[in-house]
Amino acid sequence: MKKIVVANWKMNGDVDLVKRFNQADFPTSVNTIICPPSYYIPLLHSQRFELGAQNCSKFITGAYTGESSPQHLKNLGCSYVIVGHSERRSLFNEFNGFINKKAIAATACGLKPIICIGESLIEREENRTEKVLLSQLDTVTANLKNQSYIIAYEPVWSIGTGLLPTNKDIADVAQLIRNRIGEAAAVIYGGSVSSENAETLANITALNGVLVGGASLNLQSFQQIINAFQGD
Ligand code: PGA
To answer: Which of 60, 76, 164, 184 is the most exposed place for a label (fewest CB within 10 A)?
Structure first.
């Protein structure tokens, strides 16, 4: 399996960044997935990366003002959609059952969901990480048995903070996830991934790749991260 490097631009970026990504030379030996704000999706096109959305509706069509249909995202050229990001959970009250419905709607439309799970700092400090992750995992992946999806392990305390778990902690979580949902599961890590720590993260054999927030807004840094995952 090719390593996966996902860019999550969040609500950042502009047309100039879109142009620079369109012209950039990313290695095809890595599965690079760009998730811009949804209005930039139609402007991004390259043979060198695939497209993903940052969120989608649990509904496919109908009277749902302000929602983004997974079918429409697919029609715009997306192959992936991030669901259950911790910012959606904490700022927009999304919970596991709701995230599961979005993942099901996404797969019904031919999108591969990138489903985020992760423990908070307090849950970690209280030694509840494993329990919390398994409980999230069970609910968000319900009824997705024969579907293809990616699990992004994103500890909430690591997002945008510069703090990372140890390689061993990440490898243990990847194994925990595989033990639960199957050895073939694709597991990526997200949270403060940078050009400085990409090599170290690329050494975690249990990991299929990374999800990059802030550092994906700088083309040069992002290319360095991809290069670290190119392998030999
Ligand atoms: P970060 O964000 O790389 O800026 O920590 C990761 C994420 O939120 O997915």
So the answer is: 184
In 1-146, DSSP assigns E strands to 3-8, 30-35, 50-53, 78-83, 112-117
Q: Is the CB of 8 under 6 A from ligand 1?
A: yes
CA of 120 to the centre of ligand 1 (A): 14
Per-residue pLDDT of the chain (232 residues; tens, 9 = 90+): 899 999 999 999 999 999 999 999 999 999 999 999 999 999 999 999 999 999 999 999 999 999 999 999 999 999 999 999 999 999 999 999 999 999 999 999 999 999 999 999 999 999 999 999 999 999 999 999 889 999 999 999 999 999 999 999 999 999 999 999 998 889 999 999 999 999 999 999 999 999 999 999 999 999 999 999 997 5
Q: Looking at the CA of residue 116, tell me the nearest atom of ligand 1.
A: 9
Asked if residue 212 has its Cβ within 6 Å of ligand 1, the reply is yes
Tell me the pTM. Answer: 0.97
State in Å: Cα 192 to ligand 1 middle.
6
Structure tokens at 13: 């970026």
Q: CA 107, CA 208: separation in Å to the nearest integer?
A: 20
Catalytic residues: 85, 154
Spatial CA neighbour of 60 closest among 109, 114, 111:
109
154 pocket-lining for ligand 1 (C-beta < 6 Å): yes
Residue 216 Cα: closest atom of ligand 1 = 3
Degrees to nearest 5, angle at CA 202 with 197 and 207 = 120
- What residues have CB less than 8 Å from 174, skipping those under 6 apart? 153, 187, 189, 204, 206, 207
